[in-house]
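Subject: sequence -> structure tokens, single chain

Hey, anyone have a minute? Need the predicted structure for the following. Not urgent.
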Amino acid sequence: MTGFVRTTIVSVFAGATAVVGMAAPASAATQIQDGLVNVAVGDISILNNADIGVVAQIAAQICGVKVGPVAVLGVAVDRSGDFRTVCQTDQGPVTISQN
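Reply:
Had a minute. Here:
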């Protein structure tokens, strides 16, 4: 019985170590939320590493929409590291991206 218990404990410990080892690289890949994002129209960057509030005001002015929803998009971009399109203009999409 002692050999069986020892084998079981070692197996559980090895499995837990493998799970933690696989989770560590995933957490290292997450974005740092710093409240700064970029805004671009088409392929032209308008602001880089700008405060979300400033980006929201500029993008809302270009798109003719309210600032509040654009600020929410900016926060989502800062958290996820993804980009979001605010609107489509003749010059291209107005996008917010992680800095």
